[in-house]
TrEMBL record:
Database matches in InterPro entries: RNaseH-like_sf
Protein's recorded name: Transposase
Species annotation: Legionella pneumophila
Lineage: Bacteria, Pseudomonadati, Pseudomonadota, Gammaproteobacteria, Legionellales
C-alpha cells in the first residue's frame, strides 16, 4: 500500500509501519457520546499537507460545509502551535491545547525573559484558577490562560486555553479528559 509509512503510534508507544489517520471527532460533553465527523490520510509525499493542515481543513469543513455547532476544539500536544491556536481563535472557537514542556512563556504583564513552561512559579491561587500568560511568538496582545493539570502521579500537563470563562483547574482537567 502506497500510504504505509514509518510513524509514531501512541498505542504501541513507539515507531510502527502503518497508515497515518487524522481524525475529527465530535464529543457531546453531556452524554459523552461521540461521532466521527471527518478523517484524512496523512500522506505528505502525495498531497504536501501536514497533520495541522488536515485538522484545519476538517475544522473549516465541519463549520462551513457541514455547519456543525460546536464551541471548543480539543487537540493533542502535537497540534498546539501558535499558528493553529490563532486559527481556532479566529474561527471564534475556544481551544484547549496541552503544550510541550519546553514551550516558552511568560506571565501576563511581565517584561522578564520567556522561559520553559515548567520553570514558571505558581501561587496556590494560580494552581486552582489558572495563570494568564503569553506564549512566545504570539501577537503582543494575545494572552491566554494556562492551567497546570496533574494527569498522574508522575506527569503534569500544561494546558493553554483562550476560553475566558475557564477559572478552574479541575474543570480544565475534566474538559481535557474528553480527548
Amino acid at each position: 500500500i502506497e500510504s504505509v509509512r514509518w510513524q509514531y503510534s501512541g498505542n504501541a508507544h513507539g515507531i510502527v509501519r502503518g497508515i497515518g489517520l487524522v481524525n475529527c471527532i465530535y464529543i457531546n460533553p453531556e452524554t459523552k457520546e461521540f461521532w466521527l465527523i471527518d478523517y484524512r490520510i496523512f500522506d505528505p509525499e502525495r498531497d504536501g499537507k501536514s497533520k495541522v493542515d488536515h485538522v484545519e481543513d476538517m475544522l473549516k469543513n465541519a463549520l462551513y460545509s457541514k455547519q456543525l455547532s460546536f464551541k471548543t476544539v480539543l487537540v493533542d500536544t502535537w497540534y498546539a502551535s501558535n499558528k493553529f491556536m490563532l486559527f481556532v481563535h479566529n474561527l471564534g472557537k475556544y481551544f484547549y491545547c496541552p503544550i510541550k514542556r519546553n514551550r516558552l512563556v511568560r506571565p501576563a504583564g511581565s517584561k522578564e525573559h520567556y522561559r520553559a513552561v515548567t520553570e514558571l512559579n505558581w501561587t496556590e491561587e494560580e494552581l486552582k484558577l489558572g495563570k494568564i500568560i503569553r506564549l512566545k511568538g504570539m501577537p503582543g496582545d494575545f494572552y491566554m490562560k494556562l492551567f497546570r493539570v496533574p494527569v498522574s502521579t508522575n506527569r503534569t500537563d500544561y494546558v493553554a486555553t483562550n476560553d475566558p470563562s475557564q477559572h478552574c483547574s479541575h474543570d480544565t482537567q475534566d474538559v481535557c479528559a474528553m480527548r
